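Consortium newsletter contribution from the modelling node. Members have asked for a concrete example of what our holo predictions look like. Here is one, prepared for the manganese (II) ion complex that several groups have been discussing at recent meetings.
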Amino acid sequence: MRSAVTISLVAEAKAGPFVFHDDLELGCRRAKELGYDAVELFAPGPDAVTQETLRGLLRKYGLALAAVGTGAGWVKHKLSLTSPDAGIRDKAIEFIKTMIDFGGPHGAPAIIGSMQGRWGDGVSQSQSLDWLKGGLEALGAHAARFDVPLFYEPLNRYETNLCTTVAAGVQILESLQATNVRLLADLFHMNIEEADIAAALETGGKWIGHVHFVDSNRRPVGDGHMNYGPIIAALRKIGYGGYLSAEAFPWPDSDAAAAQTIRGFRYWVGRHSA
Ligand code: LER
Ligand code: MN
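And here is the predicted structure:
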């Protein structure tokens, strides 16, 4: 398992659960100083940083790009894969494709989180799910051009009503033709929705492609009441070799949150390593 830390460049997400905000180079520098393997980027769009700048920073600081978020499509443009408006659904797919093109050259999968939307407002649950699956098929195929997976993230009930658990996520992925779509297990959402987080990770098995590593209250690892022992043991049991990526509030501040998470990563992952 490898470590990653989030950097947001989205002005509308200043209060969001991202460790570093606004300054990509500073976030990369701090990540490197603390010994992270990678950064995860939440960008307003594909033009927020040029490919050259991004490649240069990753090289300068010896970091990988773990994943790129697509939530700005919702936060900034109100796009959703399950909007009742076909034009908006098409624009949502186009926006996410541009984010796949942004991360793909760096081997970084795109994340479908808030862009999944929700059912209601005259749209049935099954219709919404069909639109979501159609989106995942098209976007999975697009990601395959870069030989990267696409990450789909079940969210808690206050953020979506489409898919809130790992088991429901597995059902969706098993129904797809695309074979490169994987689940993002965000421990914060799982703490709200799962009866047993470790058991849910085992249910996820080979479908788990990425983990948002965070405590129960969305503070950094160790600042809530999450029971990490069984969680790390479950990840080991399923042979998980991806990132534990710090998507947490910058509490009490960005530097302290990043330092706290990497301490937690070393304690839990080191402790359970063979
Ligand atoms: C949103 O709550 C979240 O967890 C993000 O990773 C998805 O956009
Ligand atoms: Mn998340």
